[in-house]
Amino acid sequence: MTGMKADLEAARERTVEDVVGPGTAVMFCGINPGLYSAATGRHFARPGNRFWPALHLSGFTPRLLRPSEQHLLPSYGLGVTNLVPRATAKAAELSAEELRLAPARLTRLACEAGLEVLAVVGVSAYRVAFGRPKAAVGPSDDMIGPARLWILPNPSGLNAHYTLPALAAEFRRLRETTTLPETAPPS
How far apart are CA 52 and CA 57, in angstroms? Predict the structure, then answer.
């Protein structure tokens, strides 16, 4: 195996630490780490993933952050986690049972962090994890602990249904409903 391919295969089953801090108001929740993210230890790290551009274009961050700057998210009142912590090459490798375990863990996280919103990034995975087969992108009537639930499209480059501007528009809909810190760290 070549170096990068071997590194990716070695990342299978690894986890990526949650990014959360005092004052985290909005926690973005991916489906699970891909192998590239697990190999680097950074959320949404694969080149071509549109999470970081959508975060910036929607007004959540004053500039485009790189995955290596994920540690800055709590200073903006933001955090990142996953429905399922273990890394796989494709989300399709996850079982429905694994996804259905997510709400209990996320409820604990929402309560501990005092979240305002948990934004699940991926409507299909949300439907399975939360038992809501008709869920659609946008706000949910459900709560998770103290947090409102919001469903966003998956920012993976494989989700061709959403262009970057359309993805950013959905992130912006959420941004317009949240209370975040007035001051942001230097860019």
Answer: 9
The rounded distance, in Å, linking the Cα atoms of 82 and 24 is: 15
In CATH, what class is 11-175? alpha beta
Could you tell me how many helices (H) and strands (E) the chain has, helices first?
7, 5
Instruction: Kindly report whether the global pTM for this prediction surpasses the value 0.85.
Output: yes
33: which residues sit within 8 A by CB, 6+ positions away?
14, 15, 16, 43, 82, 85, 86, 87
Alpha helix ranges (H) inside 41-133? 51-57, 96-100, 102-113, 123-129
Strand intervals (E) in the chain: 26-30, 78-82, 117-121, 138-144, 147-152
Averaged pLDDT, groups of 10, the chain, 187 residues long = 70 86 95 91 92 97 97 97 93 93 96 97 95 97 96 83 93 94 54
